[in-house]
Amino acid sequence: MNFAHKYSRPAMALAVATLAASPLAHAANWFALQGISPPKASHFGVSGFIEPSLYAQPGRKDRFEKNHVPNINLIAPNFTHSTAVSILRARIMLRGNINPDISYLLGGEFGSNGITKVRGAYQPGLIDGHVTFSYLPGARIEVGLIRAPSAEGALRGYMTYNFVLPSAVIGQLMQQTMYSSGVPYDKNINAYLISSQESLGANGFRYPGVMLFDWFRHGPWEFSYGAMVGLFGTVAAGNRSSSPLYAVRLQESYILGGKGAFRSDVQAGIWYQHARPDLAGQGYSMTRYGVDVQYLQGYMHQWGRQFRFQYIRGSGWITAASAFSHAPDLPAPLTKTQLYPGGQNQASGYMLEAGLFLTRHIEADLRYDYYDRLPNNAAQQRIFKTWAVGLQYHFTPLTKIFGGYYFRTLGVPHQPNAAANSISSVVDNVFAMQAMIAF
Questions:
Q1: Of 55, 166, 191, 192, most Cβ neighbours within 10 A?
Q2: In which band, very low, low, confident or very high, does the pLDDT at 25 lie, cut at 50, 70 and 90?
Q3: Which region is the signal sequence (predicted)?
Q4: In CATH, which superfamily holds the domain spanning 9-438?
């Protein structure tokens, strides 16, 4: 079957060059697409994207905690409404080639999300900023603010997202929020209690550092690797650790056809991350690792399909987001984030996702994700399960509208736990819709 798109050559060249010059492409080799600019890119180029988003859920109240709406039924990052319209992401990027062996990328984030929510206030900031040197055969060197080697779900460009809401295991275990490290935090048994004023924003899976990466082709086979040493921190937060962060990913791909931004392939990857974030004058071990598999064939072609699976485990630095926003009549453990830093604290999860192009433009998607948080702590263990059904309309490779409905459950395995049960019994299902517009 021929999956080639019937675009004119100039139009296709423009689309591929634009996508390859920004972290938006629909390909498996994210090291190549995000680490370097296309060979024919100019010295200076501007690109970006914007994501207007709509969220709707009932906003049911928890009667046990004095009729407050729990945060799980409110829209992040402000947690003030259960139905909202916002610009989730708005990004402008500058990218180009200084010479054939040196490329660069600078990107600013201006949307309303966890990255720009710093100390409870809106603060746009630098999300990408790196230079890549390709002088050494087999070992390209990337320096700056980098997407660290990790799960495929954390490396993917936003244009390839099939759902507005991330899976729980990616959103809770991989998306790291930075916290003020020198504050004398209160503790609730084994957890630090952290207010929104001490949150320094999420990192968008990026860390400052140095990464070696490259890829090697042998017929249809492609081996890729990335190995990074960096700092646990962000531009807004600075360095939050006195020890280095280490991250590595190895992946093997079998290329079925095409090339660049929309190739068809089968890919498997394995990865590992380790850091020692500091908090309250002490360093704590944080480890994440996992495996993933994906199959992509026939992008924007009828009966084109995709399948993804990823499994992730973590120990140390496990976050339980605040159950409620600040309210004077609720105790601090309910209104503050609980951070469990010790290495004995565990979490794991997985995600299965499938998609099918019903026509050249219409794609149907299905996802199931499972996240088991703190199984080592009977009182705090929570199990998040979500079925998501979605539909997308792809106008072009650069522009689409997509929406999904999320059937969510929150399990509390160990009983009795009246307070947790009262929240889990009112967890809303969610409808979310978004337009993805790149330029």
A1: 191
A2: very low
A3: 1-27
A4: Porin (2.40.160.10)
The Cα diameter of the chain in Å comes to 65
Written as six digits, the tokens of 217 are 């082709």
Domain boundaries, the chain: 9-438
What are residue 331's phi and psi, to 5 degrees? Answer: -70, 155
- Give burial (CB, 10 Å; 0-12/13-18/19+) of 39: exposed
How many other CB atoms sit within 10 Å of the CB of residue 258?
A: 18
So what's the pLDDT on residue 374?
A: 98
Tell me the C-alpha distance between 209 and 36, whole Å: 16
HSE-CB at 38 with a 13 A cutoff on CA atoms is 20
Q: Assess whether the previous peptide bond of 77 is cis (omega < 30° from 0).
A: yes
Lowest mean pLDDT among 10-19, 65-74, 79-88, 114-123: 10-19
Region 233-247: mean pLDDT is 93
Instruction: State pLDDT tens for residues 336-351.
Output: 999 999 999 999 999 9
Query: Which run of H or E residues covers position 218?
Result: strand 206-218
Residue 170 carries which DSSP code?
Answer: I
381 has pLDDT over 80? yes
CA atoms of 424 and 416, how far apart (whole Å): 13
From the centroid of its chain, how far is CA 272?
Answer: 16
What values do phi and psi take at 170, rounded to 5?
Answer: -75, -45
Establish how many alpha carbons lie within 13 A of residue 300's alpha carbon, considering only the half-sphere containing its beta carbon: 20
Cα distance between residue 132 and residue 102, in whole Å: 6
DSSP string for 390-428: EEEEEEETTEEEEEEEEEEEEE--SS--HHHHHHHTTPP
Q: Which residue has the tokens 């974030």?
A: 277
